[in-house]
Amino acid sequence: MSLCCFIHSCEQELRKIYEINATLITLIPKVNNVVSLKQMRPISLYNVYYKVITKVLASRRRKVMEGLVSPNQCSFVPHRQTTDNIIITQEVIHSMKNRSRKKGWMAIKIDLEKAYDRLKWKFIKDTLEDIGLPQQFVEMVWACISTPSMSMLWNGEKLEDFTPSKGIRQGDPLSPYLFVLCMERVFHLIEIAVIHKLWKPIKLSKGGPPLSCLAFADDLILFSEASMDQVEIIQQCLDIFCGSLGQKVSLEKTRIFFSKNVGWAVKNEISNAFGFQRTDNLGKYLGVSIHHDRVNRRLLRSVKDKVNQRLNSWKTRNLSVTGRLTLTKSVLAAIPSYTMQTVFFPDSFVMKLTGLRKVHVKAWQKIYKPKDERGLGMREMRLVNKCFMMKNCWTICSQPSKLWVQVLRDKYKCGNASVPNIEKKSRASNAWKGICDARSSVQPFIAWNVGDGTQVQFWKDRWLPSRTCLLEVALEPVLEHERGKFVSEYITEEGLWNLNNIRFLLPMSAWFEVIGSAPPSIEVDPNVMVWGGSPTGAFSIKSAYNTI
Question: What does pTM read for this prediction?
Answer without folding.
Answer: 0.88
